[in-house]
Automatic annotation (TrEMBL):
InterPro entries: AsmA-related
Organism: Pedobacter riviphilus
Name of the protein in its database record: AsmA-like C-terminal domain-containing protein
Amino acid sequence: MADEFMVYADGGTAASAPSNGVILIPDNLNVIFSANAAEVKYNGLLIKNAKGTMRINNGALTLQQTGFDIAGAQVGMDANYKSTSTKTGLFDFHLTAKEFDIARAYKEIKLFREMASSASKVKGVVGLDYQLSGKLNAEMFPVYPSLKGGGVLSLKKVSLMGFKMMNAVSKATKRDSLTNPDLSDVQIKSTIKNNIITIEQTKMKVAGFRPRFEGQVSFDGRLNLSGRLGLPPFGLFGIPLSITGTQEKPIVKLKRNKEGKLEETGENK
């Protein structure tokens, strides 16, 4: 178990010792070896069939061409990790997954669940190609305000049953066919910085309509999106949209969004 290598994993030797801490990498090692682990348990997460090249040098850990199974999906990853104290660390990784079940990932992966809280009722298959860096706390979990990165989420075949934002768009535009839509072949490009996810213009096809969206979503669920609902048959004419409020209570207005950007709350402002 990776958790057992964390500082104070056993509660320390003194009564006053802290109860947690990051994994410390020795400064005096310079080794390269092939890793092959049937199971790795880390922060309540079960990683299976992990294989790749691991290098330890100057107190840093590097993983290259690492493959593993998580939540039933095959994942590829390159990553770097270094402790900066007994309770803090730095990381960066590039992760790719051609296909994974979004409902299973939401259930089993805490980081995914907390960063994509609106996906609680989404079902289907998606792909991911994302790069992320940031700080780790004493529980070896990312410090959200420090996260920076970007990449692509590919919706292979997804059902947005109960997705409140799309249902609010359906109600505002009086187009019932937009309620609980099924999507496929949608590429969502985004970047992350200072607790804000910025989404590039994303185009979809739903029941003859051609909606598109772009804007920002905060980690606490605030929305600041603009869009257009392209009308059949070709989407040449459309209805402008602005979407504000929160993921739980989206506010849709049939006009262009002229509001400013969401307020950033991170440490890199």
